[in-house]
Amino acid sequence: MIAEALLYAATLPSTSKPHRKYIRYSVNLWSRAKRCSRDWEEHEANSRRAIVNAMAGCRQRRTAVVLGSGLLRDVPIRALADAFDTVVLIDLVHVATVRLAMKRKAYRNIRLIERDLSGYDDLAAGKTPEPLGFLRNVPYLDLVVSANLLSQIGRGVQRRFETERARMPADTVEQLIAAHLSGLIGMPFKSCLLTDVSYNVIDRNGATHEETDLMHGVAVPKAQAGWAWPVVPTGEESPDYQVVHRVIAAY
Ligand SMILES: C[S@@+](CC[C@H](N)C(=O)[O-])C[C@H]1O[C@@H](n2cnc3c(N)ncnc32)[C@H](O)[C@@H]1O
Q1: What is the count of structural domains for the chain?
Q2: Alpha-carbon distance 179 to 182, whole Å?
Q3: Neighbours of 237 (CB within 10 A)
Q4: Where would you tag: which of 2, 116, 118, 150 has the fewest CB atoms within 10 A of its CB?
Q5: CATH assignment at residue 156
């Protein structure tokens, strides 16, 4: 708890006022990632490998953008910084430990941007959401990575939608998940989509009790790789069950 409080306090001054409400989610992620590091290791290594494979498919390596860069656990940041002229990391919040690490000389070509990538505000204003439309204005863009972000956009949007149902379209979550995919796939840059697409609640005997589609029925592109990510290992929330997510990599 003390480490979490310190990280929160250190992140507060460098975070813009509208984004401060998200710091606790990033600190919770930091805390859980540390507790579950052994169970998450394989997922993180698979994610980094998929990004390196996507880099290999780039004809030029000028600018790379990482969406949902978070704690940089599943992002091969050193390889990206070495390979590209500029690397732009985008998230709702960049915690103080990440900001500090990015001040090192080896990372002088890295830029940090705070941005809500959901498109929710545009949809609420009656506009067609284009949450990744800003990528058109990024010069010399060769690679865009969506780094285990999309299901989190879905969760955040769902949370907000539940409190504002009356003024939002009934298919808000589906529309915004689809908008992320269409802003990423088939664009004039190489893309790498990493996302958990579903999860299962599994008991100690291996029986599945619940299966949930994190993409809300929206079709995802054909994946080059897929794996299981035990987001909530047995013992984390209950001694009786674990929650295992299914992750895909499409690049
Ligand atoms: C599961 S984490 C991804 C982990 C991260 N790639 C890493 O290597 O540590 C999801 C990330 O998405 C970010 N996120 C969630 N909703 C977002 C939104 N609407 N806009 C931008 N980032 C968002 C969270 O802050 C978090 O850092």
Answers
A1: 1
A2: 5
A3: 11
A4: 2
A5: 3.40.50
Q: How would you classify the pairing of strands 241-250 and 225-232?
A: antiparallel
Whether residue 224 lies inside any domain: the answer is yes
CB 90 within 8 A of CB 64: no
Q: How many angstroms separate the Cα of 215 from the Cα of each of 42, 150, 153, 178, 209?
A: 23, 8, 10, 9, 19
Asked if 236 and 211 count as a contact pair (C-beta separation under 8 A), the reply is no
The candidate with the shortest Cα–Cα distance to 176, out of 161, 165, 162, is 161
Whether 106 is in a domain gets the answer yes
3-state helix, strand, coil in the chain (%, to 5): 40, 25, 35
Q: How far is the CA of 92 from the centre of ligand 1 (A)?
A: 7
206-231 burial: b if 16+ Cβ within 10 Å, else e: eeeeeeeebbbebebeebeeebebbb
> Is pTM, for the whole model, over 0.85?
yes
Q: For residue 69, how far is its CA from the centre of ligand 1 (angstroms)?
A: 6
Decide if 24 is inside a domain. no
77-98 pLDDT tens trace: 999 999 999 999 999 999 999 9
In a domain, 4, yes or no: no
In this structure, what token pair is assigned to residue 141? 């863009």
Q: Which atom of ligand 1 is nearest to the CA of 72?
A: 8
| pLDDT for position 210 | 84
Minimal CA–CA distance to 179: which of 116, 133, 124, 246? 133
Task: Quote the domain boundaries for residue 112.
Answer: 38-250
